[in-house]
Prior knowledge:
2 copies of one chain form a homodimer.
Chain A: H1 4-7, H2 17-29, E1 33-42, E2 45-53, E3 59-64, E4 70-73, E5 77-80, E6 93-96, E7 99-103, H3 112-120, E8 125-129, E9 132-133, H4 137-152, E10 155-159, E11 172-173, E12 178-180, E13 186-189, H5 204-212
Parallel strand pairs in A: 7-8, 8-10
Antiparallel strand pairs in A: 1-2, 2-3, 4-5, 6-7, 9-11, 10-12, 12-13
Amino acid sequence: MGTLPSYAEDIDGGGSPSVSMLSEVAAARKITVVGGSIPERSSGQLFNTCCVIGPDGQIKAKHRKLHLFGIDIPGDITFRESDTFTAGQELTVVDTDMGRIGIGICHDIRFPELAMLYRSRGAHLICYPSAFNMSTGKLLWDLMQKSRAVDNQLFAATCSPARDTNSHSEYMIWGHSSLIGPFGEVLAAAGHEEATVIGEIDLSLIEAVRYNM
Amino acid sequence: MGTLPSYAEDIDGGGSPSVSMLSEVAAARKITVVGGSIPERSSGQLFNTCCVIGPDGQIKAKHRKLHLFGIDIPGDITFRESDTFTAGQELTVVDTDMGRIGIGICHDIRFPELAMLYRSRGAHLICYPSAFNMSTGKLLWDLMQKSRAVDNQLFAATCSPARDTNSHSEYMIWGHSSLIGPFGEVLAAAGHEEATVIGEIDLSLIEAVRYNM
């Protein structure tokens, strides 16, 4: 975490190379892009932030991670994201061509109440840009992601960096981005390596499961 | 469901052979018993009810199923528990020698908010007497039970009738009673057949996971 502040970008001030890159791609392909998360500098604070870019290349929504991760296993590992970042205070729901998307970042997936709020606000899909660690990763991308989808009868996606990102490498589990459907079914999944995966989101499945059950 | 009313027992009035049997066993063994659920007749209504019996053989708590199951898959199966039963209105938390237990019955496991309420009321274990069906069984005893335990950092148990019970046999999945720990770990699990399974509940694991994470 020590070097993260030096990578922080000023999104609102327009000084964000990451957002510029996502914006170019979104506009060129005329697609909605839910970005990964970057350190955002704003009013002297740092946030862990994900931007959603519309097909016109403009920022449609910006989610600041609500639940900062902390772990303290004496003699093993101690890490407090709140030493560096400030927690966001707002839910993020964005309407797109494919439906209404709620955004959470990584540890936000750990909290069933966030997913329940997104369902109550009409979300069809919750996207959780993430980076999984060895101690809780498997629980998060598998159990938690599936239960958020099944409990709330909607789609849930995680996207996580593939192998060869250059930080925390001994502590991270790379990859495992996936898309889960409202029955808990795996619709698309990446392995550890960089990959493009395509999953179809059939919104009629949401209506079906909500009606049937 | 058609014949269920004829099996209904008057628990409050003392006319319950099932509770008498559980009471005898609890008193003889000096143990707490969380019973399965039976149709309870009370004031002209039927409830799906689970009794918790203390080591003295007395009823310590009585849970009436809160969330009645309903399924409607046109051309396949239609079933509405609410055609027969009235839903309970109360949470059930009971203090026992091993800790504080919250009770849910079967479809109650489907609702994360119930487990969250039990956690907020200090439960160490949630017991869900259940009977799993083919369409949702696997999701319930596996995904849902684990996520209730992990989300709320407590223990979760399901107990479900073994094979050879004589109703709904083509539609049910028998067995799969299990005990899950606060990390999502399977501490004990039965197969399809009648079995005695023993799992240890180490309450210090709850404190560990809540402190560590």
